[in-house]
Amino acid sequence: MANTDLFLGMAESEWFAMSPNERGRRLGAAGPEVRWRHNQALARRRGQKRLDALRASESRLSSAEWKSIVLEFHSRCAYCGTVSNHLTKDHMIPLSRGGDDTRSNVVPACEDCNYRKNNKMPLEFFAGVSLRRS
Question: Coil, strand, or helix at residue 56?
Fold first, then answer.
């Protein structure tokens, strides 16, 4: 899909110059197939931006370092304390906000906490979360 397809034939700057309501109206009028293609293209674009940020990171966390971090946390989520065999890497300072893929910036998180934290800083995340006790 060409970049102009993503923005319904417009330049990216034109698309984002419109209000969110106007963008929604135009997408709604374009029909379900166009909306679906648009959403798929946006998801690919977000994924590519994340990969680019990971590649640009000062260093990459090795799998041995990741296993060591999980052991340090006793296989518990850093945010809610849940024990899990399916912990995911969470970047405390998100890649999208300038964080690196380094040992000092990565903690284990359960899928639920990692999803809810999204690209928030830890204080922003904890401000809106009631924590479980384990």
Answer: helix
- Out of 3.10.105.10, 3.40.190.150, 3.90.1640.30, 1.10.30.50, which CATH number does the structure's domain 63-127 have? 1.10.30.50
Is residue 59 within 8 A of residue 101, CB to CB? The reply is yes
What is the tens place of the pLDDT at every residue in 63-118? 899 999 999 999 999 999 999 999 999 999 998 888 888 899 999 999 999 999 98
| Secondary structure, 3-state, the chain | CCHHHHCCCCCHHHHHHCCHHHHHHHHHHHCHHHHHHHHHHHHHHHHHHHHHHHHHCCCCCCHHHHHHHHHHCCCECCCCCCECCCCEEEECCCHHHCCCCCHHHEEEECHHHHHHHCCCCHHHHHHCCCCCCC
Q: Where do the structural domains in the chain lie, given as residue ranges? A: 3-56, 63-127
